[in-house]
Amino acid sequence: xxxxxxxxxxxSKKWREVVGLIDSEASxxxxxxxxxxxxxxxxxxxxxxxxxxFISSLLVRLxxxxxxxxxxDALADLGVRENALSSVTGLLxxxxxxxxxxxxxxxxxxxxxxxxxxxxLETLSVQLRDQLPSLFKPTSQEIRAALGSxxxxxxxxxxxxxxxxxxxxxxxxxxxxRELANHTGQDKRFTDDAQRxxxxxxxxxxxxxxxxxxxxxxxxxxxxxxxxxxxxxxEAIDRFTQYAFKKMRxxxxxxxxxA
Length: 259
What we know:
Elements: E1 2-4, H1 13-23, H2 28-38, H3 40-46, H4 50-67, H5 71-78, H6 88-106, E2 108-110, H7 111-131, H8 140-148, H9 153-180, H10 193-210, H11 212-228, H12 234-258
Parallel strand pairs: 1-2
Helix pairs in contact: 1-2, 2-12, 4-6, 4-7, 4-8, 4-12, 6-7, 7-9, 9-10, 9-11, 11-12
């Protein structure tokens, strides 16, 4: 089974500009925007990656499936075991297995798919646990209800923001982390690993703040596409993810200009 990598940014002119910004101790805003610009082509292709498409479909469809009759059968069709709803951990493990199985059926894995898988599972973990009781183990009905609650414009907007914030950060870090190690040490941008990690944490916060732009349009898109037009197919989901990437890229540039 082959593996599709995102690209070869370190040899590109735009990537050399990113390296120059790191060398010059430029701000987080400038580095994040430049890295997003350098990786724009690779990330725009992600929406056409079969595994990424499967994961983005899960992001949009899972809440609807949870609200509809026959949810357990729908999970079984995905390859998720019957007892997956016994816990949030079980559900996430089942979804991860379903994604890996889809990758095997496609015949290839991809960096875009792996980044999206991690972003989806982390987002669901945080969002579901925020809604479920903390003192007692949630029931399968409570887990299903929590997942189904995202099938509304406002709640889906929260879910989408979490997903794209994590995806944007991990996509940027995918490229940057390989370069940051070259700028760690005496007389370099980061004197030690602690400073480098602090930079990466600041980058994660920066992308989360930028992802508010996704939250602002995702709810309206969901309501219009799902409930008004009732035309939720993969093509519509692909257009949504492409637009989300574009909005994130634009917002990162705007934040640099206003910093």
